[in-house]
Write a structure and sequence with these properties.
heterodimer, A: mainly alpha, MetI-like fold, 2 domains, 13 helices, 75% helix, B: MetI-like fold, two-stranded antiparallel ribbon, 16 helices, 2 strands, 67% helix
Chain lengths: 319, 317
């Protein structure tokens, strides 16, 4: 082999290595750069589609703007907020919403926690039945609201027959959706049907997180089953239960889909939740400024709840 | 001492308690699934069976509902139908038997397609962005990390109706109103918060040592991310993607308010499947059944990760 060949080979290799070194410095981005590169697109999207509209809504809430008219937005100060907070109808819608939230959560907690305790007895096939029970919460609330209108039909729907059979009343003697007294219960029933599995699943996780030795120790101390429930089971499951309650409270407070299709707020305004009022003001009456103020009030309430939610969430995580 | 007299460990409930618990749980499961069974059955009923009084539990199954769902039909006089050439397909025959003539396909296929395109589009985008962001939060020291994570979560808490008005105006201005791309971006924005929170949990669980070993072996950060972390996170990414897909599939409020036909998905469409005089219940039930079947399959596939998914990764098993 001649010397020149060797030199050529060496010469050929040296620039190569230099390039790969340079590439390495180029490709090996600093961690800080990568962190921001990875976070920025998500933040940009959230700012553009969540925060920007929110700020816009806050601005509009101080105007008498109507989105269906060409007139420019006119600044009217806090008039919208004063209108909303002094409007008895709005308070009534908040009451309807509170009634809905409280009842649906009470029922979900009772039934959900009860089911979780029973499933925790670990009978044969319990995981199969658990999966079946979970199905309703995964479905589309809108589609659920729509098909429950068929089930609630006074004559052709099966719900009245089911109740009539167990309560020994004539199935056609009452209507669920059309009645001022019963309609608020229809949305409670459907929401409870849908979301009880949610509370159940989280409670089940809570029950399974309790180590057996605690019960064994209680057994040694001859604590009754009743006492064990109140001093061990309940306090240990409580953070989980609270987590599910907070999440469900937020969810039912901003409930729109299911109720819009099941009762659309009627009859009269007996099932008109705040979100339905908001949709009517914004997209039917086109009172954009007024609707924006209502949206801000709704958002502030939920944001407060979310804040508490995260604190509970962190507590649960620590356990 | 015989075995029977030995105290039973607490974690083992008595057989009777177990049996009672099983009975109650099974009863609840059966009763809570009755509404779904009823809708599934209604999909196979004839129009008159669907609105029979009293409601019918036993009936002769028919595909009328599905034919009605997928076609537009017109009612014709009996002797006109008698003069027509014989029906060329089974679905034409079903229509003809009720004095109906099929005029063409209905819009349901378009709506289903919209649901699929918007669902998968937003899922892919949200999972992609979510994976990157979750990795950054999991592995790097990001200033104000907790606040940023809370910010990301709080966007999910925002009720759709509250931001719908400004988004409506913004979309009108940008020409995104009633477009698939507009809906994909919107659903991505809603889903990305869930994706970040879930994936951060999954990535946190992958030991850092694997990556550090790869870095020492001369991998760059990005190579280590692609070749070491991603393969480890595949299950988590898949579970997250299915959660995003289910959300997009089920979403109603945004699509109702921000689309007007072109980008309409199934949930706002199903309630408006109308026959002659009111809702055509077998067709509505057929559409609902087709719409819900994928969710049922996904729920069963996801059952191990459901708890994480519904609590934003706060509770794990």
């Amino acid at each position: 082999m001649s010397g020149t060949e060797k030199i050529q080979a060496l010469a050929g290799r040296v620039p190569d290595q230099a390039v790969s070194d340079r590439q390495k410095r180029f490709v090996g981005l600093s961690d800080r750069f990568i962190a921001w590169l990875f976070i920025a697109p998500t933040m940009f999207l959230l700012l553009a589609i969540n925060i920007f509209p929110l700020i816009w809504a806050i601005r509009l809430s101080f105007t008498g703007f109507m989105a269906n008219l060409p007139n420019p937005a006119r600044f009217i100060g806090i008039d919208n907020y004063v209108d909303i907070l002094t409007d008895e109808d709005i308070w009534q819608h908040f009451q309807v919403t509170a009634h809905f939230v409280l009842w649906t959560i009470a029922l979900q907690v009772l039934i959900g926690f009860g089911l979780a305790l029973l499933i925790n007895q670990k009978f044969r096939g319990h995981s199969f039945w658990t999966t079946l029970i979970l199905l309703p919460m995964m479905l589309s609330p809108a589609v659920v609201g729509n098909f429950w209108t068929l089930l609630f039909q006074p004559q052709i729907g099966p719900f009245n027959y089911f109740i009539g059979f167990f309560a020994q009343v004539a199935p056609s003697s009452f209507t669920m959706i059309g009645s001022v007294d019963l309609a608020p219960w229809t949305i409670v029933i459907v929401n409870t049907w849908m979301w009880t599995p949610y509370v159940m699943l989280i409670c089940l996780a809570g029950l399974r997180s309790i180590p057996d030795y605690i019960y064994e120790a209680a057994e040694v101390d001859r604590a009754s089953a009743w006492r064990q429930f109140w001093t061990i089971t309940l306090p240990m499951v409580l953070p989980f239960l609270m987590l599910s309650v907070l999440f469900q409270a937020i969810q039912s407070f901003e409930m729109f889909d299911m109720v819009n299709l099941l009762t659309s707020g009627g009859p009269g305004s007996t099932t008109e939740l705040v979100s339905i009022t908001l949709k009517r003001a914004a997209f039917e009456k086109w009172e954009t400024g007024y609707a924006s103020a209502l949206a801000v009030i709704l958002f502030v309430t939920i944001f407060g709840a979310a804040n508490i939610y995260v604190k509970v969430l962190n507590k649960v995580k620590q356990q | 001492m015989s075995e029977a007299l030995a105290p039973r460990p607490f974690s083992e409930p008595s057989p009777l308690a177990r049996w009672l618990a099983a009975m109650v749980v099974v009863t609840y499961a059966v009763v809570s699934l009755l509404p779904l069974a009823w809708i599934g059955a209604t999909a196979f009923k004839s129009q008159s069976d669907a609105i029979a009084y009293p409601p019918k539990v036993f009936f002769t199954p028919t595909l009328e509902g599905f034919v009605d769902l997928f076609t537009v039909q017109t009612r014709q006089p009996h002797d006109f139908i008698a003069k027509l050439p014989p029906p060329s397909s089974w679905y034409e025959k079903i229509a003809r038997d009720r004095d109906m003539v099929i005029a063409g396909p209905s819009r349901v296929v378009e709506r289903f397609l919209n649901s699929l395109i918007i669902g998968f589009g937003s899922t892919i985008l949200a999972t992609f962005l979510g994976t990157l962001t979750a990795y950054a939060f999991s592995r790097f020291k990001v200033p104000f990390a907790d606040d940023l994570m809370f910010f990301i979560l709080s966007t999910r808490m925002m009720p759709p109706i509250a931001v719908a008005v400004p988004i409506y105006m913004m979309y009108r201005y940008l020409g995104l109103y009633d477009t698939r791309i507009g809906m994909i971006l919107l659903y991505t924005a809603v889903n990305v918060s869930l994706a970040v929170w879930l994936l951060k949990g999954f990535i946190d669980e992958i030991p850092r040592e694997y990556e550090e070993a790869a870095l020492i072996d001369g991998y760059t950060r990005l190579q280590a991310f692609r070749k070491v972390v991603l393969p480890q996170a595949v299950t988590g990414i898949a579970a997250t993607a299915i959660f995003c897909l289910i959300f997009s599939w089920n979403e109603y409020a945004f699509d109702l308010l921000l689309s007007n036909g072109q980008a309409q998905t199934m949930p706002p469409f199903i309630p408006f499947i109308i026959g002659e005089g009111g809702q055509n219940w077998p067709a509505v039930a057929a559409g609902t059944t087709l719409f819900l079947v994928p969710i049922v399959i996904f729920t069963i596939a996801l059952r191990k990760h459901l708890l994480r998914g519904i609590t934003f990764g706060a509770v794990r098993k």
